[in-house]
Amino acid sequence: MALPLPTSLSPTKVTAFKDCALAFRLANIDRVPEPTSLAATRGTIVHRALQLLFLEEEPEGRTLDAALARLERAVPEVLGDDEHADLVLDGDARASLVAEAETLVRHDFELEDPRRVRVIGTELRLSVELGRLRLTGIIDRLELDDDGRLVVTDYKTGRAPTDGHEQSRLAGVHFYALLCEELLGVRPARIQLLHLREPVSISTVPTGQSLLAWRRQTAAVWSAVERACDEEDFRPRPGRMCGYCAFHAYCPAAGGDLARLPGVGAAA
Closest by alpha carbon to 193, among 214, 211, 175, 216? Predict the structure, then answer.
């Protein structure tokens, strides 16, 4: 019996399938729960704090103090939601998490002046049908530059890419540029990553050629996912990311067994 297809592709899912097809299956088809990570939680808190800053403050009010006040609100909001219910932090761990998040928010002000950002929207969920494929994505921030042209901004709270890997990290925002062009009829003039940890900014200009390449790559990934579902053949790809994987119990490459998976092939 063929496995059910995922309902859509996003930048995260495209990367996940290319990194390890089996991990993609377990996360997106079998929906095996993954433990909440501190790194992901920290990123969610920072994203929420910056979202609140742009949602609630007029440009002149987007100061560092205002951002830190939004961070203070974002912490209990994020840690108190159902998604983070399994994350248990003692006083020291919580204080460390908050301090790290504050550093990242402060770094945003080193990379840009939020008072000059002409924001259109934050955490925008976009979805578009391309033939038999539905593309979805969440844009951290969509804005206008000084000439009134669209700019896509994506915050990153993990480590910035090493030299030579910048374009691979920009792949996700190329995906968002494709969504904008398909849904809004406008190609963004610029796409940028704000790496808040270092801090460093990486930007590029999407072109018709780059978006065509992304369209073809996404279609190729979808075809591979369809084939893997039809043949029930999602193979592990051992590599450096295996140490961070939560699916070792089911992965043959890590000594696991898919037979341990409850309801293998159940609809997602």
Answer: 175
Nearest Cα to Cα of residue 211 among 245, 165, 180, 255: 180
Together in a domain, 182 and 131: yes
Any idea which residue has 């996912």 for tokens?
225
Largest CA distance in the chain: 59
Q: How far apart are CA 9 and CA 71, in angstroms?
A: 31
Tokens of 237: 């790809």
Q: What is the pLDDT of residues 179-235, one digit of tens each?
A: 999 999 999 999 999 999 999 999 999 999 989 988 898 999 999 999 999 999 999
Note whether 163 and 243 are same-domain residues.
yes
Domain hosting residue 97, numbered range: 38-114
Domain count, the chain: 2
**pLDDT tens readout for residues 44-82:** 999 999 999 999 999 999 999 999 999 999 999 999 999
Beta-strand relationship, 190-195 and 150-156: parallel
| Backbone dihedral angles phi then psi of residue 93, each to the nearest 5 degrees | -65, -40
Contact 104, 83 (CB under 8 A): no
- Please indicate, yes or no, whether residues 110 and 192 belong to a single structural domain of this protein: no
pTM of the complete model: 0.90
Alpha helices in 200-248 (DSSP H): 208-231
Cβ(2)–Cβ(232) below 8 Å = yes
